[in-house]
Fold Ribonuclease H1.
Amino acid sequence: MGTPIAMLFSRCLPFGIQALQTCRMAYYAVSSGRRAGVYETWAQCEEQVKGFKNAKYKKFKTRQEAELFVNPTKSYAPHELAVPLGAKQAQPASWKTKVEKIEKPKYTEAWPDEDHDLAEDELNAAMNEVEGDPRPSGSDTLLQATYRKRRANEDEDRKSKIPRHACQVSEAAGMKHVGAFQFEIDAEGYVIVYTDGSCINNGRPGACAGYGVYFGPNHKLNAAKPVQGRVTNNVGEIQAAIHAIKTALDLGIEKLAISTDSQFLINSITLWVAGWKRRDWKLKNNQPVKNVVDFKELDALLQNKSLKVKWNYVEAHKGIQGNEMADKLAREGSALYKQLKS
Ligand SMILES: *[C@@H]1O[C@H](CO)[C@@H](O)[C@H](O)[C@H]1NC(C)=O
């Protein structure tokens, strides 16, 4: 902020000697990430959002739109107005009209085509376009579906169609002994467990991923493990659930309430997996399901009639103790992954 927009425009728009087509300037707005702000390269933006849960970011052609995305309530002083060279200073009144017009900016370009794990919200939305929307989805790939989602006006509409689970924190209603162990149970007698995945440098070379399983304070069955196979946050989420379920089956636990902050995991296993199986592990658009090895294992475990599993969504980074502890264990798992690989 603080850079006169007129100056930026002179770099980008044909007010000076530069022609429009030579300008490839882009502004990446990060409203939710490690550090919110406007970045001028995808690499800088990526550092703020990659692996960051619920990251929110968009690409714009002008800094002005990008800054509005980061801080929609900011009002600009008239002197920050873009004024074509030689033109008269615009009036504050016309500025105001302009601000109102771009309050809901149009997304003019597709997001960079990079091979990275999409942030949780994006992945969930993109998957829903393919799997959850009753309209035929044609031959869209997951990424094309994401691009479409980004289009102005449709954005909110689409978001409202994503199956989202309300945050539900399991209240411990009592304790239950199973074998040599003691577990907290909820009012319906389900053993309470929190699971989480973690990935450092998600989607980049040198990524390290792990998962955490948390039954309670200092519980002997709490686990912090490196992932196996693909090294992404989502793999961590799935393998954490697998670990929790295996533990429960081994011990003879009959009811398990898994609390996770991954809407994607819950939607995958409760909504979409049935269709994937019918189509031989293909999406509706015939693309292969990612992380199929892990999803197959999770699904097979869930067929075991001796265990009933209930899924709870909990919001991440909200101080929900079980989730915070599972997150900590997951990060320990990522650190272990790093140790093993180096
Ligand atoms: C269900 O889990 C139990 C405990 O691990 C195991 O002994 C049994 O073989 C499993 N059943 C099936 C059908 O996989």
In short: The first strand starts at residue 27 and ends at 32. Residues 249-250, 304, 306 surround 2-acetamido-2-deoxy-beta-D-glucopyranose (CB under 6 Å). Residues 1-23, 75-117, 133-139 have pLDDT under 50 and may be disordered. Residues 27-70 form a domain with the Ribonuclease HI; Chain A fold (CATH 3.40.970.10).
